[in-house]
Amino acid sequence: MKRDLYIVSQVIRTGKITLSSRMLLNDSKKGPPHVQYRRPYGCAVLAMSDVLQTISELKEEKDFVLKVYTENTEGSTCGLIISLQLLRGDMEQVRRENPLIFSRGVAITRKLGFPDVIMPGDIRNDLYLTLERGDFERGGKSVQKNIEVTIYVLYADGEILKDCISLGSGEPNVPEHRSFVLYHNNGPRWSEVIKLPIPIDRFRGSHLRFEFRHCSTKDKGEKKLFGFAFTPLMREDGTTLSDESHELYVYKCDENTTFSNHALYLGLPCCKEDFNSCPNIPSSLIFQRSMKETFWISTQLSSTKLTQNVDLLALLKWKAHPDRVMDILGRLRHVSGEEIVKFLQDILDTLFSILDDNTDKYGPLVFQSLVFIINLLRDSKYYHFRPVMDTYIQKHFAGALELIRCLRWYMDRFAEVALEYLFKFIIQSRILYSRATCGMEEEQFRTSIQELFQSIRFVLSLDSRNSETLIFTQAALLNSFPAIFDELLQMFTVQEVAEFVRGTLGSMPSTVHIGQSMDVVKLQSIARTVDSRLFSFPESRRILLPVVLHHIHLHLRQQKELLICSGILSSIFSIIKTSSLVTHTHMHTHTHIHTRNTGEYVSCLLSLLRQMTDIHFQHLMENFQSKDELKEFLLKILCVFRNLMKLSIFPRDWNIMRLLTSNIILTTAQYLAPALHKNFTEADFDFKVWNSYFSLAVLYINQPSLQLENLSPAKRKKVFDKYGDMRVMMTYELFSMWQNLGENKIHFIPGMIGPFLGVTLVPQVEVRNIMIPIFHDMMDWEQRKNGNFKQVEAELIDKLDSLVSEGKGDENYRELFGLLLLEKIEQETWRETGISFVTSVTRLMERLLDYRDCMKGDETENKKIGCTVNLLNFYKSEINKEEMYIRYIHKLCDMHLQAENYTEAAFTLLLYWELLHWDERPLKEFLHYPAQTEWHRKEGLCRKCWEYGIPLCRSWPSSTNPKMEAAYYDNIMEQQPLEPEFFRVGFYGRKFPFFLRNKEFVCRGHDYERLEAFQQRMLGEFPQAIAMQHPNQPDEAILQCDAQYLQIYAVTPVPDSVTVLQMDRVPDRIKSFYRVNNVRRFRYDRPFHKGPKDRDNEFKSLWIERTTLILTHPLPGISVEVSPLENAISVVENKNQELRTLISQYQHKQLHGNINLLSMTLNGVIDAAVNGGIARYQEAFFDKEYITSHPEDTEKITQLKDLMQEQVHILGVGLAVHEKLVHPEMRPLHKKLIDQFQMMRSSLCHVSTRNNIILQPQGYKYIHGAVVQKAVLLCVSAGSAWFRQVRLRAQHTQRNPGHSRPHEPRELQTDAPTQVSNTQRLKVPVRLSCFNLIQIHSSVCTTMPSKPHSVSKHVENV
């Protein structure tokens, strides 16, 4: 079915040929109705490759449509529908399984040719004839002929054989066949195939006759005979027509010619070959050959009785020529294999009949012919004919007693022979003879067999390295030798056959140097011996095992042909169940099977160990002559066991095999442990053996296949019921062996701490309970030896980090670890240091577990960063593990870089930078750092944070530092940083990770992120959390509940660098850095009302609870209450700072184009002041009643009044800037702001005057610092030295308050600013007279000639 198969359908139309249309007209009224012609109409093809897949999946018929292709295919719509169904099995099976199909008269078509196997009794005699083509003359006509060929099969007497022509399966046989007619074609190509089922007895003497007629297109529809051809079916030598194409002669004749006397043409040559055999043909014969016309046919014979080979025919008919028997037997080897297997039964019958006729004369030649046929069947091409031979021997063989003698004669001459079928013939002959004679000559037969085996042994014992002929003979004997065992068992006992086999196998040379090919043949013969039925008998195994193992041992020792040897051992161990042979086998093979860890040797080893008992292991241990031999054995077998537990040994899905292997290893380890303890403890302690044992135990317990927790409940129960928890059993063995070490335990500290720690992390409670106390034992032994357990401490912490990172350990392990060790340590003299160490480890474990869960889960970057910070701080501050601290510094840096937090990443690396020194000390390669000196590594870490980069540059001993420092200054002044928002976040509840649980943090928000957005982001990171709607401290119930509560509110940074913020000459960008960086204190204000609330003015009773958070312990911080007046001061001060910063940015063109932000800010402040705002503060705090009742607030009232006046002046400056930048379309808004500003000033003056609170002592007035700031900025921008002069004069005035000159300030008094906010206002409160102010601005105008009126306007506003 794998060949290119096609279903081809030829459509033939029958009828009359018309002259006009060349079509067949069945309904033509002209011409005789009985005249019919076959004309080709079309053809349809179906490729089986397209439908096999479809029908192979169905059990019922399926229809397929075949398009019919005709000469004119354009308008053709013809088609055929066929149904196909695929039936599997031989014919008998198909008939049995599908009786309904065969009840409908199904036709069975035999293969065109022979099947793959022709069984004895299968008789067939079919000749397939193909009409190929012809070349004919026109015959004087103007047009070509319409030629029809009629075929007849005639016997020797001229009788037409009836029913010897088959046109197809299922069709009745006919006496003649008429070909189809091609219109006007003198060179027709028919390619029609017919079958000629001629009886064998009528085949000789029969011939085929082909008559050629021209079919007229006239109305009469005449068929005119114009020629014929013929060919006999069998030649004179008895061979049939050969399977090839034949060119036949065409003889002329006419319509009146009769063939009543066939002898008239049979004497003529039918073809060229026939003409050559009879060249002298008279020319006066009645039939003359048409020299220009020829006719081609091809034949194919499918017959089990007729042959086309002369030599084979002579053999089958040897009795006709008894004098030629010797020559006939010699020529058999020249017959093709196809012919021999086709007539196998007849050939064998003929050979044995010749042998029986004269054994002495024909015996050797018959035997050679028989060997030739047997060897032919060994060829893969004819291997499937072996059942034919088997069937013949069992059912058709009649006996040949002289085969043993012939075989011995053959063996003595070192001839290549296959024993299998020869022994089958021999045994069958003996059985038949014994039946016929009632067992006569039994002893003679046995003696002949023994002599035959002696000949075989002699041939096998010879050295064949110098004889190619002998090599082939030995190879043939060894290949066929195991096949004779079953035949021998029919005549001999199991022990007798086993002795025959042992002697034969033992005769082979005991060397592996006879040649690689012969080594392979020898081992393959041994392998087939082991796989034979003979070896399955225990009594035969006792005889055969020694010689089999001897040869295997030779090859294993030389490391030759290991794959075949492993297969033999596997077969042996699969047969042997439990017997005393196990120990013997082990002693011969175990030493070498470890050399290659292939699957075959693994199965051998496992099978062997599985069958060994206490007695076997005891016997094994006693057979070692010295401890060195025992040590070597233990090291090797423990190494093999470790390799067996690697995943690469077995495929991943071989779980059953892995479990079986683990069980065998566990059992073997239990048997080997006493020998290890007995021979390698105390004085004979051997670290290498013990370390190998412990390594095996650790690897065993950690095997993935033994982790029952990862299996489904059903699989877990099945494994547990069959094997138990093998991890626990091995753990008990490990603990017992550890206890047996005694003082030698110190040799495994700290080497075994990591492996044992890995065992304790296995998620099995009993394993943990057994193994965790070993750490106490290690601490105790190191304490005894060194006075401390630093090695245990260091190694345990290092390994714990890596193991937990790999996914091992859990919260239960952390609790159990601390509980068991603290219980053990409680009675020790070093209890305090032990408890401290165990506590540190358990706390480390908490953080490591949180870190692992964070990294593995779909957590946000913020959570991962926070967890990492928590862990690296622990390594630094609590257990001082610098290497681990540095590792987590770099992990944290990578997280920041991934989140594009470049500044944070730089600060993270700064932690590592601070650990390094400017020394030449060489550092090893570490993480991604190459091996380099310490100062090179420190130099490479100095990057990116400009403000912090400047002091780093100054500490950096390098010539390039000034350039880098200058670049940092440029970046500070040119790039505008954004001041972030800060939020206080509390994580309450036990559902949070340990590093967050019941802790509070101050978090910096993203750029432009406000409270609502930040809160949503945090709730997105913790979707199960509940947002607390109040800022109050949570109670204990919330802290201990199994839930998550988030408390979030905004906080304000309180800078520590107050001095920098108070300096007038410091640019705002620098102050902005100090306001939000390097800050440890944050403030949160919560408003509340104390006392009765004034409905008209709520500011009178509005208090503020101000909480200061310090970013060091303890939290939550310090809380104070802020009075309404203090709150008002803070609000106005913060608003002034906001206005100053914004106006300054527009003045210096840092904000370009759109002034909407300035417009909205001015409008918000001015509109709020007009409609309430700061006017409400005046009503609340400038009232006489309030001043009288709160005399302690006098200074604060004055401060609030200054801030309010300052806000008015700031707004004036802002409006001036707004007037310059406002778009013409926005002029109405600007005019509205001017009007509201005038109203605001008026209301403030009115309220102030009414309450008489504006005091102007000595005629001086508070002047807004913005004017001075403006003047300073103008002077600095012009490069004048005026500012320095004013500053010097101010200092001089302070030192000499009584000294003054005309037109100079009589008093320059600087008030210390009151800092109430993290946002330091740019205010320089000075007390100046109006005259002095005008003088200052005059100087400014002199220095700055451009636009002096703008400065004057500000003075006028003041």
UniProtKB/TrEMBL annotation:
This is Dedicator of cytokinesis 3. Residues 124-302 form the C2 DOCK-type domain. PANTHER family: DEDICATOR OF CYTOKINESIS (PTHR45653), DEDICATOR OF CYTOKINESIS PROTEIN 3 (PTHR45653:SF4). Its main location: cytoplasm. It comes from Oreochromis aureus (Israeli tilapia). One of its GO terms (biological process) is small GTPase-mediated signal transduction. One of its GO terms (cellular component) is cytoplasm. Residues 1292-1317 are annotated as: Disordered. Pfam families: DHR-2_Lobe_B, DHR-2_Lobe_C, DOCK-C2, DOCK_N, TPR_DOCK. It is found in: Cytoplasm. PROSITE patterns: C2_DOCK (PS51650), DOCKER (PS51651). GO terms for molecular function: guanyl-nucleotide exchange factor activity; small GTPase binding. Keywords: Cytoplasm. Residues 876-1253 form the DOCKER domain. Belongs to the DOCK family.
